[in-house]
Write a structure and sequence with these properties.
The chain is of the alpha+beta class and about 550 residues long. About 20% of the residues lie in helices and about 25% in strands. It has three domains: about 1-10 and about 20-390, Deoxyribonuclease I, Chain A; about 395-500, Sandwich (Immunoglobulin-like), CATH 2.60.40; about 515-555, no CATH class. The chain is built from nine helices and 24 strands.
């Protein structure tokens, strides 16, 4: 017997409302894990204290509230993780933390990974300490001024949602700023810009496969294994985010990231399934990110994710799957695709080969759209956001003891299994559904499942039965196997006992003497069924005339 309150409703309702849930999350100031990547175009500071004239624009873009009358009215970008490209110095990173923390509407809990200087401009990683635990930075590939190498260092930032420690709940995020367009034939073999990007993409793919691509540990800070291999640890989730400078999905550099060859190891995917020739192609205008101040004509900036973030369990990109359980191609006729939480922030799809639309911008409104233009100076990029759901958590009692019973009697216990995800931190929409099965060892039984509990939903009550055929102590276990990466298998010890049969069963009041008082007490018990479970004299689980006749026969037989 099992009672899982609300579960069937939840499963049916999610199937009906999945698109609506994704639509509600897209662009919202929700509590799920929101990741943003943005090439901020040579962000530097000067003066005392150091500031940038673009600071107020960044604050408006990130925490500005979308005006009434628009689909996302009352919401803001409000990311939890912000990875940026083209930061110039440690002072610039420190100032940007202040920009994030002092913006109107900011929770004020932003911190940054240590700045690591390299050739050309650099990546920077910012995170909300109430939502994310930063683990360390790895330099996985070295750039140089050589025209035969990648121009900038590739950084990987390892982090996980607060409240989790498992590898499956940990992300290795590669921040990229690949070589810009152009060509150079001065290298042996005639490497060009595409070839230099290909070098970096192959190194990222290798590193995501676990290969130590920087064996001398150059330029690293922290990390999950300082001084050891730079390769992504087994089980970690993969995100590649930043400025790809790639104009066509069929090019070798892009395929080095998303292609299945030579093996699936380290492969990442476009979560909005929108390949093509993006450059100067108005078909893709709703996902173009470059250049908002001059001409919107290319999809340089992207967030790509590993297969583990698309499998619809645990830590996952939030999307509505197709019939095969896979992400659907982005609906390019609208910026507000209800099947995805991925957005080119500020691009309402009305601009192509022209500056980003401000007046009448239907995604963010005129003030935020203008701030996007002003914040990038000349040219520049739009930010990309994507929302992620964190894993389910399971809660169960440490042990369960069933009440003692005589041979043949009925002994049960109700075991509560709950979804223990932090709804206050992530909201119900930002947590995965808890899915689990139950198995039993020893002289106990219960329903095996599978079962599901929605985030924030009531616990499920599982009734465990004990076999009481033979007297003696009873021990066993209840094994809960779930999609909680922190505790995929929970073992609950079970115990109970079957008492020896009484020396004189019709001595109903147990005073050691068989007399009319026992007969009177049993009859009173029998006819007051709801008040006296002991009226089930023959222990068959049902109180009926057989019990009365069995007791009378035993009474007159004596002891």
């Amino acid at each position: 017997m099992i009672k899982v309150m609300g579960t069937a409703w939840h499963i049916r309702s999610c199937a009906r409302m999945g698109a609506a849930v994704v639509c509600a999350l897209a662009g919202a100031a929700q509590a799920q894990l929101r990741i943003c990547t943005w090439n901020v175009t040579n962000y530097s500071v000067s003066g005392s204290p150091p500031t940038s004239p673009r600071d107020a624009d960044f604050q408006t873009v990130i925490y500005g509230v979308i005006p009434a009358g628009l689909p996302l009215a009352g919401r803001s970008m409000s990311p939890d993780v912000f990875v940026g490209q083209e930061f110039i110095s440690a002072a610039a990173v420190a100032r940007f933390v202040q920009v994030l923390n002092t913006a109107p509407g900011s929770p004020g809990d932003w911190a940054a990974a240590p700045f690591l200087d390299g050739p050309d401009t650099d990546s920077a990683f910012f995170y909300r300490t109430s939502k994310v635990q930063y683990l360390g930075t790895w330099t996985v590939a070295l750039g140089s001024s050589s025209t035969c190498n990648q121009p900038r260092h590739t950084r990987r930032y390892d982090f996980r949602p607060v409240g989790y420690t498992a590898p499956e709940a940990t992300i290795g995020l590669y921040s990229i700023h690949l070589k810009a367009q152009g060509s150079n034939t001065a290298c042996p073999g005639g490497e060009n810009a595409e070839g230099r990007r290909l070098i970096e993409c192959r190194r990222i793919r290798d590193n995501a496969s676990g290969v130590d691509t920087n064996p001398n540990w150059v330029g690293g800070v922290g990390g999950s294994n300082p001084g050891g291999s730079s390769g992504l640890p087994a089980g970690y989730q993969v995100i590649v985010a930043g400025d790809t400078n790639i104009q066509n999905a069929s090019r070798p550099d892009y395929q080095a990231l998303v292609g299945a060859s030579p093996s699936p190891a380290g492969q990442v995917f476009d979560p909005i399934v929108t390949p093509g020739t993006w450059n100067n192609n108005g078909v893709f205008r709703v996902i173009h990110t470059q250049e908002p101040s001059t001409q919107m004509d290319d999809r340089h900036d992207q967030i790509l994710v590993g297969a583990g973030l698309l499998d619809r369990t645990g830590l996952d990109y939030i999307f509505t799957p197709n019939a095969q359980g896979q992400p659907q191609p982005y609906a390019l006729a609208t910026w507000n695709d209800s099947n995805h939480t991925y957005r080119a922030w500020g691009n309402d799809g009305t601009t192509y080969n022209a500056p980003l639309r401000t007046t009448g911008n239907t995604m963010v409104g005129p003030a935020i759209a203008q701030a996007l233009i002003s914040s990038v100076a000349t040219g520049g990029h739009l930010p990309i956001i994507a929302d992620f759901r964190v894993p389910a958590r399971v809660a169960a009692p440490e042990s369960v003891t069933l009440p003692p019973v005589e041979p043949g009697g009925t002994s049960t216990a109700s075991v509560a299994i709950a979804h223990a995800g932090d709804v206050a931190r992530w909201t119900a929409a930002g947590l995965d559904t808890l899915r689990y099965t139950v198995s039993i060892t020893g002289p106990f039984t219960t329903a095996p499942g599978p079962f599901a509990i929605a985030p924030g939903g009531p616990p499920a009550s599982h009734v465990v039965f004990m076999d009481s055929a033979e007297a003696g102590p009873k021990v066993g276990t209840m094994v809960i196997t779930s999609n909680d990466p922190e505790a995929p298998v929970v073992v609950v010890p079970l115990s109970g006992s079957v008492l020896p049969p009484p020396a004189c069963a019709p001595d109903f009041n147990g005073d050691g003497t068989l007399d009319p008082d026992d007969l009177a007490d049993y009859i009173a018990c029998y006819f007051g069924l709801s008040r006296c479970p002991a009226a089930d004299f023959n222990h068959d689980g049902t109180t009926d005339p057989d019990d009365l006749s069995d007791f009378i026969a035993a009474y007159f037989a004596g002891c």
